[in-house]
Design goal:
The complex is a heterotrimer. By secondary structure, chain A is an all-alpha fold. Chain A has 17 helices and two strands. In chain A, strands 1-2 form a two-stranded antiparallel sheet. In chain A, helix 1 packs parallel to helix 4 and helix 6 runs antiparallel to helix 17. The longest helix of chain A is centred in the first third of the chain and has 23 residues. The radius of gyration of chain A is 21 Å and the shape is globular. The C terminus of chain A is likely disordered. Chain B is an alpha/beta fold. Among the domains of chain B are: 278 residues, Rossmann fold; 63 residues, no CATH class. Chain B is built from 15 helices and 17 strands. In chain B, the strands form four sheets. Chain B has a six-stranded mixed beta sheet, sandwiched between helices. Chain B has a four-stranded antiparallel beta sheet with strand order 2-8-7-4, with no helix packed on it. In chain B, helix 4 crosses helix 5 and helix 10 crosses helix 13. Chain B is globular, with a radius of gyration of 30 Å. Chain C contains five helices and four strands; from the N terminus they run ααααβαβββ. In chain C, helix 2 crosses helix 3. Chain C is elongated, with a radius of gyration of 25 Å. The chains are: A mainly alpha, B alpha/beta, C mainly alpha. At the A-B interface, helix 1 of A face strand 16, helix 9, helix 12 and helix 13 of B.
Chain lengths: 338, 557, 192
Amino acid sequence: MYNSPYLRQNTSVRRVMVTVLVAMLPAIAMQVWLFGIGLLLQIAIASATALACEAAMLSLRHRPVARALGDGSALVTAWLIAVCLPPLLPWWMIVIGTSFAIVIGKHLYGGLGQNPFNPAMLAYCVLIISFPALMSQWPGLQGSDAATQLDWVLGGERALDAVTGATPLDALRTGLLGNADVAAVMQSPAFGHLAGAGWEWVALAWGAGGLLLLALRIITWHIPVAFLGAMALVSGVAWLIDPSHYASPAFHLLAGGTMLGAFFIATDPVSGATTPRGKLIFAACIALIAWLIRAFGAYPDGIAFAVLLLNICVPLIDIKTQPPVFGHKVEPPDGGAR
Amino acid sequence: MLNKLFSFNGGVKPDPNKSASTREPIARLALPPQLVIPLHQHIGGTPRPLVTVGSTVLGGQRIGAPDGNVSSAVHAPTSGRVVAIEPRPMPHASGLSSPAVVIEPDGLDTAIEREPFDWHAAAPGEIRDFLRDAGVVGLGGAVFPSHLKLNPGKSGHTDTLVINGAECEPFITCDDMLMRTEPENILRGALIMQRMLAAKQVLVALEDNKPEAATALKAAARALGNASLEVVVVPTRYPAGGAKQLIRVLTGIEVPHGSRSTDFGVQCFNVATALAVWRALEHGEALTRRIVTVAGNVERPRNFDVAIGTPISHLFAAAGLKPDTDKLIMGGPMMGIPLPNIDAPVVKATNCLLASSPTLFAPPEPELPCIRCGECARACPADLQPFELYWHSRARNFGRAQEYKLFDCIECGCCAYVCPSHIPLVDYYRYAKSEIWARERDKDAADSARERFEFRNWRADREKEEKAAKLAARNAAKPAVKPADGPAPAADVAPAAAEDPKKALIEAAMARARAQKEAVAAKNTDALTPAQKAQIDAAEERRKRASELSGSDAPTE
Amino acid sequence: MITALLVMAGLALVLGATLGAASVLFKTQGDPLVDKIDAILPQTQCGQCGYPGCKPYATAIAGGDADINQCPPGGDEGVRKLADLLGREYKPLNAEHGVEKPKSVAVIDEATCIGCTLCIQACPVDAIVGAAKQMHTIVGDLCTGCELCVPPCPADCIDMVPVTETVESWKWRYPVFELKVQPATLPAKEAA
């Protein structure tokens, strides 16, 4: 038995999730081009782990397995985890991170739609706290051939120092700690025109994917605009005050996970704010905290922590920013009916 | 001149599907063998039947009298004989029955002699009473008695009268066809309404997907030459035809839930209601017919002019129901209700009858968890947060659902239309609303029971006190007459004696009752003694008298 | 030492006086708890709980003399609400006091009524009208379905008729959601 409306738009969760996956492709292609095909293997491992964990949890929870697996949400989580991890991590780390995200981050809270935290960011945080050294090793641009990469991911001996370098954010942090100023650090070969060499292009590819999501109405403008706006504003103010200690807004916008966070992470509807004003507050606060962690914290990038911190605040933000309901926007004349 | 249109948030643009039923003109449908006219077809009190089984009625004769002012009359659409007054299945999602007058048309279609009514000279109050007695209610679907809305309120005037011809729901074309065929009379009805409401301007609004109707209305407006009358074409977007949304589009005013639009200087009527007002006042015609769109999975989709009370099966037979139809819907595909019973009658609220097939309206895919994507909030024309309402309704957390303004939801279905998780959102709201109403009814009943219980206890206490006081007074008076040891046995005897005759009376009555019970039981057997028959007849007679006394209006025979 | 004692004693005096004054100034009229409990009870006044009406039962619950599961008309939902209000553990309805039945109203068979007024005296909510030797009738809207009028009737002419749904009182059903695969082993309480 079902009732009106009998007409339904041709849309589904699967369609939404697949669109998100498609929008991730440009950035993935860019990363593969720059850092090698290790990332593809990582994506494969993460996807397989996510699907296996999802299926296991669904059957333990007596939910229809095939239907929920088909919604694609586990794949989105898996891909997001894979793209934010350094490309040449050993396979078991990816398995740990992904299974943590799916089992603890998602299903222990009640599955799709119920998780208060962004599962991908949960996985990232667990890994960076547990394995800080491995998590900060990024391969250099075009540093190694495909066979070596595969060997590493699958657990072969690593000669890390030979081919890995720090991310631009890491380099900046280390440089500043070593009393160099921003301009000096930026001279190092890890840096390109604006942010890290190559990183700019990855960030722009994320931005392009994000614009696709916007165009297809999968996300609204609120979160990316507030996120990037707040990041530009706060880093810009600091940069104007002391350009030798604080990197420029352009660097912050294009370095690390800013673009990925603005378009793909903070826009996760389940764990994010839902009201228009709430989205603005939510995203701006993430950008602010992320910048604070970048500038003053112990970790090179802070988007994952910022997202989790704001995830906790979502219920409060949503309650306090409920948009006015039709007819309740202005006080009705003569005291009102209610 | 209206030079600026406003807009409402949200809304959706489903495929209008209106062309199929507008190819043919409106057809007047022949009378069915039986008309089932429900007494309760509008918001407000249930009318009292004015006819009895076996009586003959004429076309336009009143068969149900309005119960109070918030009610409306019901009329016989044609002449014939009343064959039953009994509960019949209603065109309602429940499929339950409700009292109805069943008329067998005699085929002559003799109309009752219409009393001429000079509305030009009548006071607004008289016109309102006349419309109530003519059974004019809102024909857009809400069936709110029109006479109640034709009151300018405290201020004594209204800024804008909106005549709603938007008809935003897909498939429905009954208003469209009406506007094409009778534009002048619609506008004349609107002008009467304007006079009653003392409205400064009349805006007749329709969506831009009805160019023929717009042309017809504009020509009619020019012919009438009234400067305060304007035909406005608004952009097509569901639900632009919702009264609140249309008022917002035309005037920018948002009328909150639970308040009257007249308080904001606006009033809104459907085009068919305007025509019904015109016909009632100018020709003395009661509301006994309406235009119904029959569309969807039928061979010949079309608009029919049908007598109210015509079984729905009769309309589908005329339009040719296709064999793969899996369900029937009254109303449009966005807000229509399922019809469990094809023999239910057409009522004043029936604007459209849709036949559904699995290919036309596919059964929804299985419900998935809400991912809070916010599509519903973007589609909601009432600016609600539908997923929050869903969340709390599903958890039966009705208090919270009301905090999120559940009752501002107009059940337009936009949220469920766009939901990627295929959640039947509106079903959850309907469920929550009816639960809340039921709880309020239960609470009111409990409160009134408590009040009566407490009053009864108070009364019992008072009686006890009075008795005690009387006894004390008597005792104070008695000792002077009687010796001190005397009263004790006497007092013991007296109540016993008083009790005995009472007991005896009850015994006797019980014996009579037993005899009567046997007589009642004997009724089933064929052999009836004349005495029993007389007894039964006498009882019948008494009952009839009692029923005559209880109704203030004597039934017309 | 002395000072400390004096300070303590003085504080005790002041606080005691404040408390005393507060208890006089802010004295609550009636027992709000009893009213809250009474608001949950269905007001059938049927006495199945063993008390002469809902208010006395509410008083007994508030006083700790009665348990929360003695009201069959309130049903399972009523017990849950009471448990919620009082912060107590939910327990199933005590069968000693009767079982939950669908809501019914009393109907007098007017042909057999002898007009004895006994039912009128029994009705706790004044829902029966009539006079001695006149036929009685029950006002259906006012009847709480307490059944107290049934035993006193000497002619046995009162029936309890379950209230049927009408178009007005009909409720939309809880939308079915087939999210869960129902394995045979799933406990029945899940469905309840």
